[in-house]
Write a structure and sequence with these properties.
By secondary structure, the protein is of the alpha/beta class. It is about 45% helix and about 15% strand. The strands form two sheets. The chain has a seven-stranded mixed sheet with strand order 2-1-4-5-6-3-9, with helices on both faces. A two-stranded antiparallel ribbon has the order 7-8. Strand 1 and strand 2 (about 45-50) form a beta hairpin. The longest helix has 21 residues, at about 270-290. The chain is globular, with a radius of gyration of 25 Å.
Length: about 300
């Protein structure tokens, strides 16, 4: 073999090895699913099917009737092809912000609604995600849970552009629903208040404050969620117990629910849900160990 032939052979061998190291581009998404999560593999973003989405129902959610009515109306408009708004759900933790978005999938998946969950650190990929979705016949909610940003986060500007800030028209089949514990999604500092101007009795916020509030302003609908009082908390706890088979909210169950909220330091829908899972499971285990039928009687 000549030196030239050996060189060509070595080059081909090297190219073969390099090709094996280069990750293959992800295939097309499985569009038969109803929910996906945006993931990365070796530098490539792709839609990963969520095989078992958490399908709770709107009837499972108590004490947020006004919020449910508003977001259901907005989503009904969306799935029927009418105009609708991006939604920002803010407020106390554990009060149903994420749950109501999950419940929308149960309510509207038969009408073509689909959900794509995107983590905060992946928001920079929103242009790529919307490019995948905009030509599809389904209606997509891009869901960002527990959203907040630190100064300099790259996903902040990507989200602003997708919401309303690009020369490209927004896709009719995509909305962004985001939850957050705070209305203004960027941190605010005392020094920024010094930029505020007082001109002839008029208060004008500084440029930094205006920039930080502009992201929230791009959501057309704001829904606020509030902490539960004791009666509201107990109502939700009783509902979740019924969901797990305990029909009567006995005095023992009520006392246990209150003790649970005290140890958690929270009277929220999440605390009530976690209490019900613990209490119902404990009763099931006790009945099994006692050799009783698994169905609950009214004394539980």
């Amino acid at each position: 073999m000549t030196d030239y032939a050996q060189l060509v052979s070595r080059a081909e061998s090297l190219l073969t090895k390099l090709e094996a190291l280069v990750p293959a581009a992800p295939g097309l998404p499985d569009w038969t699913a109803i929910a996906w999560r945006w993931q990365h593999n070796k530098g490539h973003g792709y839609l990963e099917v969520i095989p078992y989405p958490h399908l709770i129902t709107l009837d499972d959610l108590y004490n947020i009737e006004q919020q449910k009515a508003e977001i259901v109306r907005n989503t009904a408009q969306f799935v029927q092809g009418y105009t609708a708004n991006n939604v920002l759900l803010t407020g106390a933790r554990g009060t149903g912000k994420s749950s109501v978005v999950k419940a929308l999938l149960s309510q509207f998946s038969q009408n073509g609604l689909r959900v794509v969950e995107v983590d905060k650190q992946d928001l920079i990929d929103l242009p790529q995600i919307t490019a995948l979705l905009r030509s599809r016949p389904e209606r997509f909610i891009v869901f960002c849970d527990d959203l907040s940003f630190e100064a300099g986060d790259s996903g902040y500007k990507a989200l602003k552009v997708v919401l309303d800030g690009s020369m490209t028209v927004t896709a009719d089949n995509i909305l962004v629903y985001a939850t957050s514990n705070r209305r203004h999604l960027l941190p605010e500092f005392m020094t920024e208040s010094l930029e505020t101007q007082h001109l002839g009795g008029e208060v004008r916020p500084g440029d930094t404050v205006e920039e930080k509030t502009s992201l929230s302003d791009r959501f057309g609908m704001w829904l606020s969620f509030y902490s539960f009082d004791q009666d509201e908390y107990l109502t939700v706890a009783a509902q979740w117990l019924r969901h797990y088979g305990i029909q009567e909210f006995s005095e023992a169950a009520r006392t246990a629910a209150l003790q649970w909220s005290h140890t958690r330091g929270s009277r929220s829908g999440r605390a009530a849900y976690q209490f019900a899972r613990d209490y119902a499971g404990k009763k099931m285990l006790a009945a099994t160990e006692a050799g009783k039928p698994s169905m609950f009687d009214n004394e539980l």
